[in-house]
């Protein structure tokens, strides 16, 4: 009797695990890549004093995260902000390299909604230089 109960529980657990896996696979959306395989990703440009990328993007540049953050910073950046970036080691060459990187990235991956906004933000920083 005990063997039957254990075997039944084992089968029930296996069935539930399989059903859960089947449900989770159906809930996961299919993502179709828009990355152009013919275009190589450019190397990541330099940052002031080799700061890490989150400190550079979200800290120094202040672009937040996602397209909303980039758009908000694009709308609000001032010449005074750019001057503070210069004091912290940002060079015009770095800004131009990042602009080229994000311009290329928006062409390489049209599915990246943030890249074109970051390219525009870098272009605006150049104009406020």
TrEMBL record:
InterPro entries per the UniProt record, alphabetical: DUF4951, DUF4951_sf
Highest taxon above the source species: Bacteria
Name of the protein in question: DUF4951 domain-containing protein
